[in-house]
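hiii, so i know i said id send this last week but things got crazy w the move. better late than never?? heres the sequnce for the chain we talked about at the cafe, plus the structure i predicted for it. fair warning i was half asleep when i ran it
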Amino acid sequence: MIQAIQALFAAAERGDLAALDSIYAGDSLLVIEGSGINRGWTDYRDNHLAPELKEFSNFRYRPFEIEARVSGNLAWATFRYALSADLPNGKADVVGRGTAILERRGARWVVRLTHTASRARRPSDPPMP
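okay and structure toks below
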């Protein structure tokens, strides 16, 4: 299950929307970032993630301190993450925390919900993993 979280971050970092098609739970997906919300993979992909990724260069997006629990066909994880990217008008360099809820579908885990929040990196924060 932790591998599904790691695969999600790696695919996003590569800008691989096709890989994310199989990691996210389609119309069952709910994404909350800060105060924003997207319902369904198509909404998140088309109205948030794809436009955002087009703006990024030198994008790095890494999870760490992943803690996961599994109960039957459901699992949840908490994690920290680091994100850095060059933007047209500056640079993003943030750290954050997140929660994910996953569902087992056959032999694989798909992400049903993510909730993340971030802030600017401070000197006391850990380096990019």
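btw The mean pLDDT is 96. thought thatd interest u
miss u guys!!
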